[in-house]
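Hello Y.,

Per our agreement to keep a running log of every chain we model this quarter, I'm adding this entry. I've kept the format consistent with earlier entries: sequence first, then predicted structure.
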Amino acid sequence: MSDAENTMSIFALMGQATIAVKIVMLILVAASVVSWVMIFKSLIYQSNAKKAFDYFEKQFWSGIDLNQLFRQGNGHDRIEGIENIFRAGFKEFTRLRQTAGADAEAIMDGAQRAMRVALAREEEKLDENLPFLGSVASVSPYVGLFGTVWGIMNSFMNLSNVHQTTLATVAPGIAEALIATAMGLFAAIPAVLAYNKFSARSSALLSNYQTFAEEFSTILHRQVHSK
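Predicted structure for the entry above:
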Protein backbone atom coordinates (compact mmCIF):
# COMPACT_ATOMS: atom_id res chain seq x y z
CA MET A 1 0.00 0.00 0.00
CA SER A 2 2.81 2.38 0.86
CA ASP A 3 4.61 1.66 -2.43
CA ALA A 4 1.41 2.27 -4.39
CA GLU A 5 0.83 5.58 -2.61
CA ASN A 6 4.39 6.66 -3.36
CA THR A 7 3.98 5.68 -7.00
CA MET A 8 0.74 7.67 -7.33
CA SER A 9 1.96 10.73 -5.43
CA ILE A 10 2.03 14.00 -7.36
CA PHE A 11 5.80 14.37 -7.29
CA ALA A 12 6.30 10.76 -8.32
CA LEU A 13 3.91 11.19 -11.24
CA MET A 14 5.68 14.38 -12.29
CA GLY A 15 8.99 12.55 -12.23
CA GLN A 16 7.58 9.72 -14.36
CA ALA A 17 6.07 12.06 -16.96
CA THR A 18 7.38 12.18 -20.51
CA ILE A 19 9.89 14.84 -21.56
CA ALA A 20 7.23 16.88 -23.38
CA VAL A 21 4.94 16.93 -20.34
CA LYS A 22 7.86 17.80 -18.05
CA ILE A 23 8.75 20.76 -20.29
CA VAL A 24 5.14 21.93 -20.15
CA MET A 25 5.17 21.67 -16.35
CA LEU A 26 8.44 23.63 -16.11
CA ILE A 27 7.04 26.37 -18.35
CA LEU A 28 3.92 26.62 -16.20
CA VAL A 29 5.90 26.68 -12.94
CA ALA A 30 8.16 29.43 -14.33
CA ALA A 31 5.13 31.42 -15.53
CA SER A 32 3.49 31.06 -12.13
CA VAL A 33 6.60 32.21 -10.24
CA VAL A 34 7.12 35.24 -12.50
CA SER A 35 3.41 36.07 -12.24
CA TRP A 36 3.55 36.13 -8.45
CA VAL A 37 6.63 38.38 -8.53
CA MET A 38 4.79 40.79 -10.83
CA ILE A 39 1.65 40.59 -8.72
CA PHE A 40 3.53 41.70 -5.61
CA LYS A 41 5.38 44.43 -7.55
CA SER A 42 2.13 45.81 -8.98
CA LEU A 43 0.41 45.60 -5.60
CA ILE A 44 3.18 47.59 -3.91
CA TYR A 45 3.49 50.16 -6.70
CA GLN A 46 -0.23 50.83 -7.06
CA SER A 47 -0.75 50.98 -3.30
CA ASN A 48 2.06 53.53 -2.99
CA ALA A 49 0.70 55.47 -5.97
CA LYS A 50 -2.74 55.70 -4.34
CA LYS A 51 -1.26 56.89 -1.04
CA ALA A 52 0.93 59.43 -2.85
CA PHE A 53 -2.10 60.70 -4.78
CA ASP A 54 -4.17 61.20 -1.63
CA TYR A 55 -1.28 62.94 0.16
CA PHE A 56 -0.35 65.25 -2.71
CA GLU A 57 -3.94 66.15 -3.56
CA LYS A 58 -4.52 67.11 0.07
CA GLN A 59 -1.45 69.37 -0.06
CA PHE A 60 -2.44 70.84 -3.41
CA TRP A 61 -5.91 71.86 -2.28
CA SER A 62 -4.73 73.10 1.12
CA GLY A 63 -4.11 76.56 -0.36
CA ILE A 64 -0.32 76.24 -0.47
CA ASP A 65 1.49 78.47 -2.96
CA LEU A 66 2.25 76.53 -6.17
CA ASN A 67 5.86 77.75 -6.26
CA GLN A 68 6.39 76.49 -2.72
CA LEU A 69 4.76 73.17 -3.57
CA PHE A 70 7.04 72.84 -6.57
CA ARG A 71 10.15 73.63 -4.51
CA GLN A 72 9.23 70.95 -1.94
CA GLY A 73 9.82 68.27 -4.54
CA ASN A 74 13.28 69.51 -5.54
CA GLY A 75 14.95 67.45 -2.83
CA HIS A 76 13.20 64.20 -3.75
CA ASP A 77 15.28 61.59 -5.52
CA ARG A 78 12.31 60.09 -7.36
CA ILE A 79 9.16 61.90 -8.41
CA GLU A 80 6.26 59.73 -9.56
CA GLY A 81 2.52 59.72 -9.91
CA ILE A 82 0.46 62.84 -9.56
CA GLU A 83 3.40 64.91 -8.35
CA ASN A 84 5.28 64.13 -11.56
CA ILE A 85 2.32 65.41 -13.60
CA PHE A 86 2.13 68.57 -11.50
CA ARG A 87 5.85 69.28 -11.75
CA ALA A 88 5.96 68.66 -15.50
CA GLY A 89 3.08 71.06 -16.14
CA PHE A 90 4.17 73.75 -13.71
CA LYS A 91 7.81 73.66 -14.86
CA GLU A 92 6.82 74.14 -18.51
CA PHE A 93 4.26 76.78 -17.55
CA THR A 94 6.87 78.77 -15.61
CA ARG A 95 9.50 78.42 -18.35
CA LEU A 96 7.18 79.58 -21.13
CA ARG A 97 5.77 82.39 -19.03
CA GLN A 98 9.28 83.78 -18.60
CA THR A 99 9.90 83.61 -22.34
CA ALA A 100 9.59 86.95 -24.06
CA GLY A 101 6.77 87.16 -26.57
CA ALA A 102 4.97 83.99 -25.50
CA ASP A 103 1.20 84.47 -25.57
CA ALA A 104 -1.29 82.90 -23.16
CA GLU A 105 -2.44 80.20 -25.55
CA ALA A 106 1.12 79.07 -26.31
CA ILE A 107 1.89 78.91 -22.59
CA MET A 108 -1.21 76.81 -21.88
CA ASP A 109 -0.59 74.51 -24.85
CA GLY A 110 2.97 73.87 -23.65
CA ALA A 111 1.93 73.17 -20.07
CA GLN A 112 -0.89 70.83 -21.12
CA ARG A 113 1.39 69.00 -23.55
CA ALA A 114 3.98 68.47 -20.79
CA MET A 115 1.27 67.08 -18.50
CA ARG A 116 -0.01 64.74 -21.22
CA VAL A 117 3.51 63.34 -21.69
CA ALA A 118 3.91 62.85 -17.93
CA LEU A 119 0.43 61.28 -17.78
CA ALA A 120 1.36 58.80 -20.53
CA ARG A 121 4.51 57.81 -18.62
CA GLU A 122 2.55 57.26 -15.43
CA GLU A 123 0.06 55.13 -17.33
CA GLU A 124 2.93 52.94 -18.58
CA LYS A 125 4.16 52.46 -15.02
CA LEU A 126 0.69 51.55 -13.74
CA ASP A 127 0.17 49.01 -16.54
CA GLU A 128 3.75 47.72 -16.66
CA ASN A 129 3.04 44.14 -15.58
CA LEU A 130 -0.49 43.77 -16.94
CA PRO A 131 0.41 42.44 -20.42
CA PHE A 132 2.37 39.53 -18.97
CA LEU A 133 -0.35 38.72 -16.43
CA GLY A 134 -2.94 38.82 -19.18
CA SER A 135 -0.86 36.50 -21.33
CA VAL A 136 -0.38 34.00 -18.50
CA ALA A 137 -4.09 34.15 -17.68
CA SER A 138 -5.14 33.40 -21.25
CA VAL A 139 -2.39 31.02 -22.41
CA SER A 140 -1.62 28.87 -19.35
CA PRO A 141 -4.80 26.73 -19.50
CA TYR A 142 -4.06 25.87 -23.14
CA VAL A 143 -0.42 25.06 -22.38
CA GLY A 144 -1.60 22.76 -19.59
CA LEU A 145 -4.20 21.23 -21.89
CA PHE A 146 -1.49 20.54 -24.47
CA GLY A 147 0.51 18.68 -21.82
CA THR A 148 -2.59 16.69 -20.85
CA VAL A 149 -3.42 15.73 -24.43
CA TRP A 150 0.17 14.74 -25.09
CA GLY A 151 0.37 12.67 -21.90
CA ILE A 152 -2.92 10.87 -22.53
CA MET A 153 -1.96 10.21 -26.16
CA ASN A 154 1.36 8.79 -25.06
CA SER A 155 -0.37 6.69 -22.39
CA PHE A 156 -2.78 5.11 -24.89
CA MET A 157 0.04 4.51 -27.37
CA ASN A 158 1.86 2.53 -24.68
CA LEU A 159 -1.21 0.33 -24.21
CA SER A 160 -0.44 -1.33 -27.54
CA ASN A 161 2.46 -3.09 -25.82
CA VAL A 162 0.30 -4.35 -22.95
CA HIS A 163 -1.54 -7.68 -23.34
CA GLN A 164 -4.09 -7.08 -20.59
CA THR A 165 -5.38 -3.54 -19.98
CA THR A 166 -6.50 -2.67 -16.46
CA LEU A 167 -7.26 0.54 -14.61
CA ALA A 168 -3.93 0.23 -12.80
CA THR A 169 -2.18 0.22 -16.17
CA VAL A 170 -3.92 3.34 -17.51
CA ALA A 171 -4.30 5.39 -14.33
CA PRO A 172 -0.69 6.57 -13.81
CA GLY A 173 -0.35 7.89 -17.36
CA ILE A 174 -3.69 9.71 -17.27
CA ALA A 175 -2.99 11.07 -13.78
CA GLU A 176 0.40 12.52 -14.76
CA ALA A 177 -1.21 14.07 -17.84
CA LEU A 178 -3.99 15.70 -15.80
CA ILE A 179 -1.40 17.29 -13.51
CA ALA A 180 -0.43 19.52 -16.44
CA THR A 181 -4.01 20.83 -16.67
CA ALA A 182 -4.07 21.45 -12.92
CA MET A 183 -0.79 23.36 -13.13
CA GLY A 184 -2.13 25.41 -16.02
CA LEU A 185 -5.12 26.43 -13.92
CA PHE A 186 -2.85 27.05 -10.92
CA ALA A 187 -0.86 29.54 -13.01
CA ALA A 188 -3.87 31.09 -14.77
CA ILE A 189 -6.35 31.71 -11.94
CA PRO A 190 -4.17 34.07 -9.83
CA ALA A 191 -3.08 35.86 -13.01
CA VAL A 192 -6.72 36.41 -14.06
CA LEU A 193 -7.71 37.75 -10.65
CA ALA A 194 -4.64 39.98 -10.43
CA TYR A 195 -5.09 41.28 -13.98
CA ASN A 196 -8.70 42.28 -13.33
CA LYS A 197 -7.89 43.88 -9.98
CA PHE A 198 -4.86 45.83 -11.17
CA SER A 199 -6.58 46.90 -14.40
CA ALA A 200 -9.45 48.37 -12.40
CA ARG A 201 -7.11 50.13 -9.95
CA SER A 202 -4.97 51.44 -12.80
CA SER A 203 -8.01 52.85 -14.60
CA ALA A 204 -9.23 54.49 -11.39
CA LEU A 205 -5.85 56.09 -10.67
CA LEU A 206 -5.45 57.21 -14.27
CA SER A 207 -8.89 58.80 -14.15
CA ASN A 208 -7.86 60.65 -10.98
CA TYR A 209 -4.66 61.82 -12.68
CA GLN A 210 -6.61 63.10 -15.69
CA THR A 211 -9.11 64.92 -13.48
CA PHE A 212 -6.27 66.55 -11.56
CA ALA A 213 -4.54 67.59 -14.80
CA GLU A 214 -7.74 69.24 -16.02
CA GLU A 215 -8.30 71.03 -12.71
CA PHE A 216 -4.67 72.14 -12.63
CA SER A 217 -4.99 73.42 -16.21
CA THR A 218 -7.95 75.52 -15.13
CA ILE A 219 -5.89 77.08 -12.33
CA LEU A 220 -2.99 77.79 -14.70
CA HIS A 221 -5.42 79.27 -17.21
CA ARG A 222 -6.67 81.71 -14.61
CA GLN A 223 -3.12 82.62 -13.65
CA VAL A 224 -1.92 83.24 -17.20
CA HIS A 225 -4.89 85.50 -17.92
CA SER A 226 -4.71 87.37 -14.62
CA LYS A 227 -1.78 89.52 -15.77
